[in-house]
Predict the 3D structure of the following.
Amino acid sequence: MAFGLRRPFQPKGPDRFIVNLGDRERAVVKAVCEDLLGALDDPAAEPLLRRVYPVAHVTDATIDAAYQEMVHSDLVSSRRKALEQIVTTAEAKELDREQLESWMIGLNTVRLVLGTRLDVIEDSSPELEPDDPDLPAWAVYEFLGGVIESIVRSSVDTL
């Protein structure tokens, strides 16, 4: 297990969750969320955000454009809200259910962008050399996957 014997998130009751992340882990989470917040309004980042804003209709550009016009601003707003919630609560020892769900949405959004950058096709990691420039990005991608899994498990454990 990437986190030793402790789960990154543990239920404390039906709507409270203990956060078991160390200072470095919290710093990584906060930094990647702040980076993505900056990219949401950057037109140059548009190609990296393609998995965050899925295509509604692959063969009909008119339908897809209408869909994007209808939902894009809501998607940006909800992603921004989730990322801001993570930045605000990055040092918290406990989260309520709404905050935990924001962490899940926000970290999944970061992971989608990282997956696009790394050209992830399936949920498997390539064999990388220690000096590979993508190694840190892959490490963050894998780390976030473990955090999201812990969030999901903790959420289900309280149902």
Q: What stands out?
A: The first strand starts at residue 9 and ends at 11. The first helix runs from residue 23 to 39. The chain has a mean pLDDT of 91.
